[in-house]
Amino acid sequence: MTTETFDAVVIGGGAAGLNGALMLARSRRSVLVIDSGTPRNAPAEGVHGLLGHDGTPPAELLKAGREEVRGYGGRIVTCEVTSAAPATPSAAGDPRFTVRLADGREFLARRLLVATGLRDVLPEIPGLARHWGRGVVHCPYCHGWEVRDEPIGIVAVGPASVHHALLFRQLTEDLVYFARGTELDDEARTRFAARGIRVIDTPIAEVESSPQGITGVRLTDGQLVPRRILAVATTLLTRADGLEGLALPMEDLPGGMGRRLVSGMAGTTDVPGVWVAGNATDLMAQVGASAAAGALAGAHMNADLAIADTEAAVRAAALNQPR
Predict the structure, then answer these.
(1) Which domains does the chain have, with CATH numbers?
(2) What are φ and ψ of residue 226, in 5° steps?
(3) pLDDT tens across 119-151, in order?
(4) How far apart are CA 55 and CA 206, in angstroms?
(5) 287 class by beta-carbon count within 10 Å (0-12 exposed, 13-18 middle, 19+ buried)
């Protein structure tokens, strides 16, 4: 089987990956985007906070992005990446990477853009996960307007939930904070009382619902607290399955908030030839910020390739000179 070589392989076809691919393809680079087909925002009704596209369904936005990348000659395949690792560099020392897919295909890349995104880990509360992306939300900027004035409950997971509650208080006057055994000092309780946020220390037993959505939170003492929306600061974990061979540095966020790939300016990493963009490194980035990061990384990748191409041309010219 012949292994195809691309100037750039993009792992992840969300906003960051597609915008990075778009920049590279428009620079006449051969680009392959590999996407698992499981976007993080699939349950959401619309993308918000993206100028000119506010409310666009996620699938519709991705479809348009794929068409644009293909329009400039980029290729897109839907499959899982099982491994990505450095390969033998060129004779001049230019990086090479081997990318293998679950269906057995293998590709060779001169440069890699990792834009795998992240996965949200919810607290293990019976009845919570089934409402993810609709009745259970995480981001006041992504979903806040849509849940305004609803009876909202904050499902605390740690210190970050205190700030989470203050953000959601902007959206509703009916806010309950389910502490769930997390620390809540006197200062935080005073702030909550001043803003009319009710604190419930009794543990949650389960989330109850009807065919129309969440109806309330059942506590371990039997009490039912009526709620329509629950907000939770999920644990954010970069999707890095299959990327172990790249040995990309990772770091844990404080307070158990998550784990991300470490990146520098324009998405550079400690591994020459590998860039990272979007939620894989910036766990809080919305779609617009992720797309912008992908575009910046793609531009820097093209510049790096241009330097490598020029150096290779100079060496070739020198070898062809008469002696």
Answers:
(1) 4-119+235-320 (3.50.50.60), 123-232 (3.50.50.60)
(2) -60, 130
(3) 999 999 999 999 998 999 999 999 999 999 999
(4) 31
(5) buried
